[in-house]
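It is worth pausing here to work through a concrete case rather than discussing structure prediction in the abstract. The textbook approach is simple: state the sequence, then state the predicted structure, then interpret. We follow exactly that order.
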Amino acid sequence: AVVSTQSTGFNERQFWEDYNEVLIERGMKDRGRVLALVQGEVKRRLGLEEDVTKIIETVKSEYRPLYPQIFQYSRSCCVPGFLNLADRCRSGELTKSMLTDKYLSVIGEGVYMVEALSPTFCEMMLEELDNFNARVLQKSRPNTMNRSGVMVEELGLLDFVNDLIADLLAPISLVLYPEWCGDDGLDSHKSFTLKYALKEDTELAYHYDNAEVTFNFCLGRDFSGAEVYFTKMTGEPEAGQYMEAEHVPGHVLIHRARHMHGTKPLLSGSRYNILTWLRSSSLRNSFCPMCRSKPRLTPSVRMGDGFTV
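Step two, the predicted structure:
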């Protein structure tokens, strides 16, 4: 069995190399204060395991789903075309060039979009999220950059997402990004929902994801703006690269997780997404993509940050 772990490492030297210039530009010149804030965040993350466990237990005992059927994976959640391309990826019928030429919309190098989720599933999931948010007051932030969203573990969708990945997302990833799947495949993930709305999260700063491959599913609602923009891969020099993707309900945006990107401001309405960050422990065990060094690990009762010991 794979023992999942999470990284607790903080490489101070690397931190200052990466962020000192930006911090100074933003007026944060007091290194002692900055370090205190960072160390506080590290401590918060170490306590997440216990907090999330309590929330999951509370939700299991108290929350009554509006649509219980969507909590068990069924292929009916996806449109036939997405099922077909996943099946052909698994069987070896499709090469990367065939997949990108015939089945996917190519936004730019390594960035793709395709219709994936059925309209019925999207609408049920949107109503389920409204129901959950109206009844469950305590929930974790999906990540450090977004305030509005739900971890799939807390929502009760972990088994659904596990099966979705094994059946559809892993085979597609292996064809599109074999170099990012590692020797043992994409063996863990972090998955969550996001909501963009006026007076809530309206945009997302430039960043890369703590993963190897990202699937970003748009559930919908009426909205304008909030396009996702991409530039370079992290660690590469700036070379004028720029591309934009406009989310479409039911479609999934697929990209390498370490492709630098951000979300432009939402102009109207609201947009809901489900994101899955797919991770490869065989790649991450020797190099943490966030601290850019060999990770220091501590045991995790769940998937942690995708490392193994």
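Step three, interpretation. The chain has a mean pLDDT of 90. Residues 158-176 form the longest helix (19 residues).
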